[in-house]
Automatic annotation (TrEMBL):
Family statement drawn from the similarity comment of this UniProt entry: Belongs to the NAD(P)-dependent epimerase/dehydratase family. dTDP-glucose dehydratase subfamily.
Protein name, as recorded: dTDP-glucose 4,6-dehydratase
Pfam families per record: GDP_Man_Dehyd
Domain of life: Bacteria
Domain NAD(P)-binding: 7-310
Native organism: Lysinibacillus contaminans
Source organism phylogeny: Bacteria, Bacillati, Bacillota, Bacilli, Bacillales
Enzyme class: lyase
PANTHER family: DTDP-D-GLUCOSE 4,6-DEHYDRATASE-RELATED
């Protein structure tokens, strides 16, 4: 029997990597194709345990390169696309917006064109709550799927542009799509430039932890395994053309998050250093995921359990993040501290 072919873009990154592992484990009847160009954020060592699995295939390719993408689609005739590949870090988008437009906008358009030409049964576009802009600190307000898009950073503007393209390809050409908009993820293999893994690695190395501004900005944290389960559900049950928000009501200020990590590791809060604020720093994100819950999704992790397990994972997988920090990423950190 021919296996259903699922193309996962960005499967060497944080969330895409967890999703590839999840799908290979959950669906032996599917063939999973991980397409990734391996930027600084892509790393295949996380897939060592599945690299010889007959249901797993890796393709090194750039989503922006349409000729390569269309040739691949024509050869493999994918049934489904789950599109994670992106430039994902807001700070990098502030210092270098161009690559965000290229990858996130043009790359998405190249994939959509290939999906339109060759035909797929579903194109799941993994987007972000940041496309909605920011909320104030009123705890009764949330982003719903009807909240107008008002992106503030070059990153979120590029993601919103890609969301619009996905919706346009559905409306104009009938490409079957879903868009998911998830809040901040955390968990294994989170790249150590982002707040949670950066804090864990720095605290373990007794290094200063930079908090932007006053540390009162709020993010709504979701364990990456809960996000993977949400995408699985949307992939199989999502109504054609619909957008689904993903989030688990775990709002925390950045200072609370950093203090939780420091206290769990039994270190001193004196490691915290307040630095200049991120330009255009969004104050608060908070997701209303009622629509997805009605489809049958429910998060499993609360933040306290999830963060404790994540800290443990970083303790047990030091070699993974140490090899990242010691390499090119270290140079990036030096550039970044000049900017701060
Ligand atoms: P990440 O930066 O960890 O991984 C991105 C992956 O995409 C990397 O493996 C990279 O090599 C690959 N990639 C980048 N440019 C590419 C290109 N031109 N061609 C092929 N591959 C390319 O990102 P992440 O945090 O795992 O985010 C994955 C997706 O989820 C993104 O689309 C992001 O916008 C979205 N998202 C992230 C979060 C979060 O909290 N991290 C929350 C909501 C949505
Ligand atoms: O909301 C979903 C988004 O979450 C995703 O779309 C993005 O891809 C992902 O990177 C993440 O964006 P954020 O900007 O919210 O994540 P980051 O970890 O970079 O920052 C989280 C908060 O912590 C934010 O308010 C900025 C702050 N921060 C971050 C860093 C790296 C600090 O105070 N100090 C830091 O050193």
């Amino acid at each position: 029997m021919t296996k259903k072919k699922i193309l996962v873009t960005g499967g060497a990154g944080f969330i895409g990597g967890n999703f590839v592992q999840y799908m290979v484990g959950e669906y032996p009847e599917y063939a999973i194709y991980n397409l990734d160009v391996l930027t600084y954020a892509g790393d295949l060592t996380k897939h060592r345990d599945i690299e010889k699995n007959e249901n797993y295939h890796f393709v090194k390719a750039d989503i922006v390169d349409y000729d390569v993408i269309i040739a691949l689609f024509e050869k493999e005739k994918f049934d489904v696309v789950v599109h994670f590949a992106a430039e994902s870090h807001v700070d990098r988008s502030i210092t270098n917006p161009g690559v965000f437009v290229s990858t996130n906008v043009l790359g998405t358009q190249a994939l959509l064109d290939a999906a339109r030409q060759v035909g797929v049964t579903k194109f799941v576009h993994v987007s972000t709550d940041e496309v909605y802009g920011e909320l104030d600190f009123d705890p009764t307000t949330f982003f719903t799927e009807d909240t107008p898009l008002q992106p503030n950073s070059p990153y979120s503007a590029s993601k919103a542009s890609s969301d619009f393209l996905v919706q346009a390809y559905h409306h104009t050409y009938g490409v079957p799509i879903n868009i998911t908009r998830c809040s901040n993820n955390y968990g294994p293999y989170h790249f150590p430039e982002k707040l949670i893994p950066l804090t864990i690695s720095r605290v373990l190395n007794e290094e200063k932890v930079p908090i932007y501004g006053d540390g009162q900005n709020i993010r709504d944290w979701l364990h990456v395994f809960d996000h993977c389960a949400a995408i699985d559900l949307v992939l199989h049950e999502g109504v054609n053309g619909e957008v689904y928000n993903v989030g688990g009501h775990n709002e925390r200020t950045n200072l609370e998050v950093v203090n939780t990590i420091i206290n769990t590791l039994g270190k001193s809060e004196e490691l915290i250093t307040f630095v200049a604020d991120r330009l255009g720093h969004d104050r608060r994100y908070a997701i209303d995921a009622t629509k997805l819950e009605k489809l049958g999704w429910k998060p499993i992790y609360n933040f306290e359990t999830g963060i404790a397990q994540t800290i443990q994972w970083y303790l047990e997988n030091k070699e993974w993040w140490e090899q990242i920090i010691s390499g090119e990423y270290r140079n990036y950190l030096e550039v970044k501290s000049t900017y701060l």
